Model the fold of this input.
Amino acid sequence: MDENIKKIIPFIKPYKFHVIWNVIYNILYALFSTLSFVALIPMMDVLFKNENKVLEEPIYTTIWDIGTYGKNYLYFQINTLSKNDGPQFALILVVSLVIITFLFKNLFNYLASNHLMHLKNGVLKDLRTTMYDKIIELPVSYYSEKRRGDIMARMLGDVNEVQNSFFSILELIVKEPMTIIFTIVTMFAISVKLTLFVFIFIPISGFIISKIGKSLKAKSERAQFEGGYLISIVEESLSGLKVVKSYNAEHNFKQKFNSSVTRLLNLSNSIGRKNNLASPFSEFMGIIVIAVLLWFGGNMVLVDKLANGKAVLEGAQFLVYMGLAYNILTPAKSISKASYSVKSGLAAAQRVFEVLEVENTITDKPNAINKETFDKNITIENINFRYEDDNILTNFSLEVPKGKTVALVGQSGSGKSTIANLLTRFYDVQEGSINIDGINLKDMTMNSLRQMIGLVTQDSILFNDTIKNNILIGKPNATDDEIIAALKVANAYEFVKDLPNGIETNIGDAGGKLSGGQKQRLSIARAVLKNPPIMILDEATSALDTESEKFVQVALENMMQNRTSIVIAHRLSTIQKADKIVVMQKGLIVEQGNHEELLAKNGMYSKLVLMQSFE
Done:
């Protein structure tokens, strides 16, 4: 069994009720599909006045003779009706029989499809939910190495492909094979000689179809990867549209997109050619067999005679036999198509499970502490951290006492923002430890850790929703009055109150309807509403104009009075009132002290102040 089939079985288990009934109804469909042809024999016998003369009602003996009993009982009823009421009433009986068998055939087909629909949609929902849970849980570091578009393609396109293609396997192993089996058994009952010819068709065509489909899975994988790359280009083009336009880079992006689309076109055409070949090839092979059957079976009807002078094969039986032989073609074509679909589904499933099986390196320990209060201090002890090969922070130590404000300054690449990433456990340190009240961050639950921290980043991250819902992320059960109070602290209510719908105003994709300063003030309001004991401000005022910064700075100072704050900033006004200023360079602390002490040293801090360039 393919590994991906084994992996998807747990998703099918909750819907085993639907699987069982789908199998049962498919078997019944296959049975009545065959019986619908068999029912034509007595009808044609009545029409051609060739019905068996069963004049006495048959007696039921054992289950093994149920076929013979049923046949004789039917012909007894036909003979009785013909004798008592006329042949037209016998014809009504056999026509009704044909209608009933076709009715049951289609009813069972509908019921099987209905259960398959519930199975496919249920598994699709569960796969999407599991995939999204995994995407949300994976650490930030995972996405620094992956294209977001590719993840989106796996989440949407590949999961859909699993639903659309993978479950063809139920038809591949139940519905169509059972139709073929019932049909062949009936064909053997009619004529053993003729049926042996059918077995020429099945292995030859099966062998050729398997040869054609061998490369399909590999090409499907490449096409799905290319689809992910295509979505990445679109996502990056939209998120960076201003840069694309301002640098006249439209042509470059169009070229990149067109190259990807062309590659996808060629792969899709190649896959499509093989898919399209399955059905006509199966039918052509079937017609060849039917042509041979027509010649050979025709001789049995017209030429070959039994000792009593009757034909070896009756005309009505031969016509039904030919219908049954053609009836094999439809499931044979379906099996060909389904086998190709399953290959595409398996390729998609592989890409889905690649994400689901990624190990989350940043998780809660089994007995992690649920820390609810912050009492004493944050200590960073001799940590080393690297994103790839070279250390960003080397042997770095720092203490942040409760209620104090510590500012981190330094040039770009000195490791300031990395401290924020480590404190929130977006990343884990390789050596050393970070502790809150003497407890290692790795020993407490991430939920309780992040509940104690409010984060305002340099890039104001907002969502395509109302102002109210964006701020409620900080405290989902907050009242409108609390939201407005937080907006006032962040100096944001002055512009929010003038909007058409106030806090119910939608701010567009990534807050695109607002200015940079307005977006940043909403981010600050979100952190204010959360009201955490520890605040991390990563360049929090960098997007504000001078006037707004003054108001927000006062608000932040008021907010930070009762909190432990770590401020990463490049503006003097933001950090000069900090209790401790830490000057960093290439992952090391080169100076620390308050504003006046560092100015008196006349070292790097003094130079940065003169340059006004805390980046």
Notes: Residues 176 and 331 are 5 Å apart (CA to CA). The chain is about 65% helix and 10% strand. The chain has a mean pLDDT of 77.
